[in-house]
Amino acid sequence: MKCGATIGAIPRNIPFSRVSCDGNELTYVQEVLDSGWLTTASKAQEFERRFAQEVGTRFAIAVNSCTAALHLGLEAMGIRPADKVLVPTMTFTASAEVIRYLGADPVFLDVEYGSSLLTPEIVAEGIDQNPDAKALIVVHFGGQPAPMFRRGDRPGILEICRERGLKVLEDAAHAFPTRCGDRMVGSLGDATCFSFYANKTITTAEGGMLTTDDEVIAARAKVMRLHGIDRDVWTRFTTLQSAWEYDVVAPGYKYNMPDINAAIGLAQLERAHILRDQRQRCAVRYFQRLAGLQALDLPRIHIPLEDHAWHLFVVIIKPQARVERGRLIALLSERGIGSSVPYKPLHRMSYYRDRYRLKAEDYPRAERIWRGCLALPLYPTLPDEEIDYVCDCLHEILG
Ligand SMILES: *Cc1c(COP(=O)(O)O)cnc(C)c1O
Q: Is the pTM of this model over 0.85?
């Protein structure tokens, strides 16, 4: 296929991301509308119960964003002003801003080239340099789990943090459903945060979930999710005894998930594995069709394909390529292909860079990724034929 030739052909429109809402979303939303109670109630509870089951954890706490879940998780772990929290530089600002919400300070870590993940070695070095760090935030970048468990004589990130007394909060905004060894992401560290933002692997439009096996974290997060009130709205309105009375135990937040959103989430959850399988189909085709293209480094995968959530397919354009990244984005756009750059590393963002006097040369691998990284369209309804067209265009432009 000749790429880019719109002469005599239909111009293409392949967006970077597209939401799949063709399950029971409408039915469940209608049930909520008919019930007359639109905000947090039985649908949110059911969504929590099913999600906890899905990731194999005791507690799942539905909130209105992953950012809220990250904030609640750190707060419940007892992170306080001036505490240090380790976090990878190659992530969305939400992973680090929540540290600042609590007056604590992020310490940015470099990541592995090709996967954008933390490694046990990077984490160990980060703790050596910051022995007073209280917690680590792990990002399961693109839907691939970071190496949390021991493999052979290489210790896992969890083990290193346990030994050194750090709590582990996981940013799993990309990682549902993701398997790590014989467990699901969501049941690994002290607490895990998921995003159901519109472009994530499952969505509630806006929404998030905090999962944990830790009773203390769960109890605190539940209270702080809704104004620091000691019982949630549902219990307050359904228990007969003292139904009108409640206490405020802390200045909490307004982070609850409305039932309207939970209804969409329940429908999405039913199809989560079907949607994941379809994204894997896309990823496998990209690997096949782009294998011979010298100008690109393809994603580095450390796990069986089935364990990956396949939220992102990030290629890295090598420095010696014919066309640089900015130009490539423009040329793809001319050909009707959307793409995205995940992420400009946080050590390059003026707020973090200036406040913590960060230097790019301290993050050599993140810098190498940043100069060339580009995420290609990846979603369940992306047809093989369109993937082939994207790959043909990449071969034509870069080959
Ligand atoms: C999307 C995203 C978030 C924030 O999710 P929200 O639900 O929009 O708050 C956090 N971390 C990462 C890595 C993300 O991609």
A: yes
